[in-house]
Automatic annotation (TrEMBL):
<dbReference type="InterPro" id="IPR036188">
    <property type="entry name" value="FAD/NAD-bd_sf"/>
</dbReference>
<dbReference type="InterPro" id="IPR053212">
    <property type="entry name" value="DHP_3-monooxygenase"/>
</dbReference>
<feature type="domain" description="2,6-dihydroxypyridine 3-monooxygenase substrate binding">
    <location>
        <begin position="166"/>
        <end position="294"/>
    </location>
</feature>
<protein>
    <submittedName>
        <fullName>2-polyprenyl-6-methoxyphenol hydroxylase-like FAD-dependent oxidoreductase</fullName>
    </submittedName>
</protein>
<dbReference type="InterPro" id="IPR054707">
    <property type="entry name" value="DhpH_subs-bd"/>
</dbReference>
<dbReference type="InterPro" id="IPR002938">
    <property type="entry name" value="FAD-bd"/>
</dbReference>
<dbReference type="Pfam" id="PF01494">
    <property type="entry name" value="FAD_binding_3"/>
</dbReference>
<dbReference type="Pfam" id="PF22607">
    <property type="entry name" value="FAD_binding-like"/>
</dbReference>
<feature type="domain" description="FAD-binding">
    <location>
        <begin position="3"/>
        <end position="157"/>
    </location>
</feature>
Length: 417
């Protein structure tokens, strides 16, 4: 069995750690953050491939995974229901998945406060160096699995040309308590996975568990993601500057988003979106935003190093695949190690399987968000290649189709290797 050092202890790293640990490998996770990582993420769309990966990690899921919805609803900007689609789904959350995965992994092997600074990829193994609060420490392994996210230190050392590319729009996000919503919104929006589209913007939302994973009706919450074009340059720089004038080029921490930007966004929501969504945004205590990026690495392995999750590919969130893609990377890597042992051939087999899956995910998500990207670059609503109604229909159905399609890429098949 191999000694494996996993860099990054978020969902992707924890999936890898659990699956590899379960296969008998000697796994250590190095995570730079200290203390609770709760509050980092919000809602996560689950589907069959994610549940299969949880099973592979030895975790049995039940109704406590999240809120079950019967399908989707597209609202018009006046709040009327445009389309209903039957599509049962479970909406879980970052924190639910994090705690499930964390509890299943040996606590002494999950090292927090360890910021990996460099590594040496030698003929007999890797040596990983980390800064642990000013104290240098090192770990040795047969393989390094880099699950350190979109700005991966490991990727930047192996493949410095692979850089995130801003998509031209941001996602405003937030979670609103169920108990504060009006009866009308609770009836027409809350029970389903909701959508509303304008010529150049899009909002989606769905119910999630409330604090401490409370699924009791009345104590749940509503999670929204509102995509808005913001041209690169001055407009983006202004948005990325907090109320005290501090610029945050890598992302504004949620509690530092300027109240002026929030006030402005709320006004726009009331003007542009279905009133149900405007109400959710108005009543969300702390909306925040994230710029949307594409990232693809041409290579997923270099010597004894494998890239996984967002370190390898970032697909825009329209296909709701980020966590599942990371989980499938973990399953594929473990499958390759079962097949070839802890060898360079195993990592190459992993790359052959997961590179096409990542490329497909990035391309599909880019296509779904293309009209917002176009609006950002031209300053105009997208050219009407499809009417708003056609596009709404497409969005509602295409994301549904994707979830099924990507599931087929999940299993590790040596015939693809
Ligand atoms: C608006 C939005 C909505 C989304 N919605 C969904 C959704 O509904 N469903 C879904 O599946 N996905 C969604 N995603 C995507 C999802 O959040 C990510 O794809 C997923 O979290 C990838 O996880 P990861 O573990 O690869 O990376 P990350 O979660 O980024 O984790 C990287 C970890 O590495 C650590 N790290 C970084 N550098 C170092 C270092 N040098 N040393 C040690 N540790 C380090 C970081 O602290 C972090 O914990 C969404 C994303 C966005 C932006």
């Amino acid at each position: 069995m191999a000694r494996i050092v996993v860099v990054g202890g978020s969902l992707g790293g924890l999936f890898a750690a659990n699956v590899l640990h379960r296969d008998g490998h000697d796994v250590t996770v190095l995570e730079k953050a200290r203390g609770s990582m709760d509050g980092r993420g919000a809602g996560i769309v689950s589907h069959d491939a994610l549940e299969a990966a949880l099973g592979r990690a030895g975790l049995r899921t039940d109704a406590s995974l999240g809120v079950a919805v019967p399908g989707r609803v597209m609202l018009r900007s006046d709040g009327a229901i445009d389309t209903l689609l039957d599509m049962p789904q479970v909406l879980t959350s970052w924190s639910r998945l994090y705690h499930l995965l964390l509890a299943a992994f040996p606590a002494e092997r999950y090292v927090q406060g360890a910021m990996v600074t460099q590594f040496v990829d030698g003929p007999d193994g890797v040596e990983v160096q980390a800064d642990c609060g000013g104290v240098p420490r090192r770990w040795e392994g047969d393989l390094l699995a880099a699950s350190d996210g979109i700005r991966s230190t490991v990727r930047q050392r192996c493949f410095p040309d692979a850089q995130p590319r801003y998509a031209g729009y941001v996602a405003w996000r937030g979670v609103c308590e169920e108990s504060v919503l009006s009866q009308h919104t609770l009836e027409t929006l809350f029970p389903r996975f909701g959508f509303c589209m304008t010529d150049s913007e899009q909002i989606i939302g769905y119910p999630v568990a409330g604090p401490r994973n409370d699924l009791t009706p009345g104590r749940r919450a509503y999670n929204f993601v509102w995509y808005r074009p913001v041209p690169m340059g001055e407009a983006l720089a202004r948005l990325m500057t907090d109320a005290d004038g501090v610029h945050h080029p890598q992302g504004v921490p949620p509690n530092r988003v300027s109240w002026r930007h929030i006030a402005h966004a709320r006004q726009d929501a009331a003007r542009l979106l279905a009133p149900q969504f405007a109400e959710v945004i108005e009543k969300t205590a702390q909306p925040f935003f994230q710029p949307i990026y594409d990232l693809q690495s041409e290579r997923l392995c270099a010597g004894r190093v494998a890239l996984m999750g967002d370190a390898a590919f970032v697909a825009r969130p329209h296909i709701g695949m980020g966590v599942t893609k990371a989980a499938e990377d973990a399953v594929a890597l473990a499958g390759a190690l079962r097949e070839y042992g802890a060898t360079l051939e195993a990592l190459r087999a992993y790359e052959r399987l997961r590179r096409p899956a990542g490329q497909l995910a990035v391309a599909r998500a880019r296509w779904l968000g293309g009209y917002m990207e176009q609006a950002a670059s031209s300053g105009e609503p997208a050219a009407p290649v499809a009417s708003a109604a056609q596009r709404a229909h497409q969005t509602l159905h295409e994301t549904a189709i994707d979830l099924g399609r990507y599931g087929h890429l999940s299993a590790f098949k040596t015939t693809n290797a």
